[in-house]
Amino acid sequence: MRCASLALIAAVTLSLSGCYSPSELIKKGPTYAAQTHKSPKQYALCVFPQWQESRPDATLSETEKGYRLLSGNDMNTNEVLQVSKAANGSDVKFYQRSYLDFGAGKAAALESTKNCL
Predict the structure, then answer these.
(1) In whole angstroms, what is the distance from residue 52 CA to residue 110 CA?
(2) What are the residues whose beta carbons fall under 8 Å from the beta carbon of 84, sequence distance 6 or more?
(3) Whole-model pTM?
């Protein structure tokens, strides 16, 4: 019984330590940053369908300064892509949490972010 309780506590601790909200992920700083000549809308509409292929939970929302793509949910965010209007196009900031992902989604999110520049 004692071993089962310790195993349960360890499992809960490990699962909680990997949770990130979008704001917590952004605080850690971007994994990748770039600029593009495309408008925020053009760029976001290029990336979003590609994210959806590998991350069915991906969402796109308009922000005050541009667009935000998010995969995951409010308590377990995998990736955030912020696209903001810049003088000659858009600033792109990609945030990705470090976690074990045995699927293609993790690499595909960054690849599509770069492909649409």
Answers:
(1) 13
(2) 40, 63, 65, 66, 90, 91, 93
(3) 0.79
